[in-house]
Amino acid sequence: MNVPTMAEMMAQGKQPEILFWVGAAGSYDDRAKKISRAFVKILHKAKVDFAVLGTEESSTGDVAKRAGNEFLFQMQAMMNIEVLNAYEVKTIVTADPHSFNTFKNEYPELGGNYTVYHHTQYIKMLIDEGRLSVDDTVLKGKKVTYHDPCYLGRANGEYESPREIIRKMGVNLTEMKRNKATALCCGAGGAQMFKDAEKGDKEINILRTEEALETKPQIIATGCPYCNTMMTDGIKATNNEGSVEVMDIAELIATSQNL
Amino acid sequence: MQYIPNILFAILLIFGIGLFVRNIRKISRNINLGKDIDRSDNKSERWKNMANIALGQSKMVRRPVSGFLHIIVYVGFIIINIEVLEIIIDGLFGTHRVLSFLGGFYSFLIGSFEILALLVLVSVIIFWIRRMVIRIPRFWNKEMKGFPKNDALYILYFEMALMSLFLIMNATDTTFQLANAGNPISQFLAPLFDGFSVETIHLIERSAWWIHIIGILIFLNYLFYSKHLHILLAFPNTFYANLNAKGKFPNDSNVTKEVKMMMDPDADPYAAPPEGEEDTVPEKFGASDVTDLNWVQLMNAYTCTECGRCTSVCPANLTGKELSPRNIMMKTRDRLEEVGQNIDKNGEFKDDNKQLLNDYITPEELWACTTCNACVEECPINIDPLGIIMEMRKYLVMEQSAAPQELNMMMTNIENNGAPWQYNQQDRLNWKDEE
Q1: Cα separations (Å) of A103 from A76, A173, B263, B347?
Q2: Is residue A204 situated within a structural domain?
Q3: What is the complex's ipTM, to 2 decimals?
């Protein structure tokens, strides 16, 4: 698929509307790559002039910071800021709430000032501006529940954009008992994604998956590649593969539009 | 001779309040052991938060039952304390119900106090039932053993006693009952004392009056040792709470300086430190003891009421991990108290070979946190356990290189190939053609 890089754009003397920050999961994780591709299809469909950094993209350092390595975080941040500022990037859109959070809240003090959108916010904007239309027939009546990523929800107060998009697709959205500000973490945050859990009597992702399953969903929607991994693992561990699907909101849109 | 009760009262009052002031100064000294942090910005929003969250209890009612009962006790506590003003004047000047000249308004006041006193009594009994009969889990976590558990009960017993004494005092005040105004509750208690002689009833009335005010003074000073400090500290605590997005973790400015120097092509790595900075010890990264935390974090520790709402929503705690955000606050306070006592004893802090890390809070607790902010969101008075956890993680990683092995690998990968996994950075765009 056609995914232009900033370098290519610059060579042609062009400045794209937005930079799509793919993130490590979106670039390397097999499940998350599908989310990246779904989002690119949406961008093409809405005729958004975008580019990625490609091989010039590097870790935001977010996970290093949450793991306590402030030094590595700031090294990564400063290097990324140099690249982003060199390309005169103004607007960043990302499908990873962790990248979204650190760009939005932690980069400005270090010299990186951008308008930052989570992809659900950006998709909602495209719909509101009439650049993207949503078909409410393909997924009509499907039972969906939405899992709030901590770094989008509690960390940045964004609960509504994802839900508004979901509602537009004609699905039957049922909330879990813990939702929005009281949503339970999937278990991946704070660098837990990259280590085994401490001793306990249960895995967090299993607990959250059980809460989702209580709503008897056909689809568990979320907006974070790490939440996606945790919930997908939870669905496997509870033997619900085949009957329940974990999907990113970008994938829901791409499916409903037959992209 | 007739002035003895007044003198006795004055002595008690001065002693009680004096002790309280001394305790407050000690707490304020301990809080100031923390590092500086600027929370003087955005005053209007801070006042608003204090008004809504502390005064208006807006976050308490997210759990409607305990929130509603708490509001009754809180309103009762504040309003019934107007009565204490009269008690103090009566006690000092030997008057009796000095404010009764207010007439109908006085009856209205005392009448409302009585109704509130009954409501508080009932609420406190329900609180006790929730704790001891229904045994709501968050009151029975493992950190709620020994003093923390008893502390909560002592406070409930205290409040039961104070409210009962207030009502008995009114019920046995014969002139007050004869006037039959402002006694909506105590009029039903008065008949209980019908068979008693005038002297006995008067003696009961006086005893209830004295025990009530002495009880209040004891309670005032018990605060210092108890989780109940929140009735005062909730106000500054909500005022000075973090206003930024919860996802924004502070950037360490010392690190920024170093990173900037490393990335500056003109920087001379062998340069001597600037004038005046030769002997300064580089500040340590993160926190291993309470004095490495900032004063707001230390105030948080004194403010915590140990209600356990944080722990009841913590994903780590819900899945049986060692971590309990409430316990992080309790341990921080315990260690701070220990440091304070050390200073009291030695004039200044003498190394006791202990610290917050390991001796109180273990790495196992710290590494179980998902940084999900559920505890921060949940706290009815904006305490931030996550900030403390992150400072201590920072110390573990940056001062001790003591991260779990998998995290060290993850960080090495970021250093080597710009991703937490071991993939070649040159493959970063391969996803676009993989369908």
Answers
A1: 12, 30, 20, 47
A2: yes
A3: 0.96
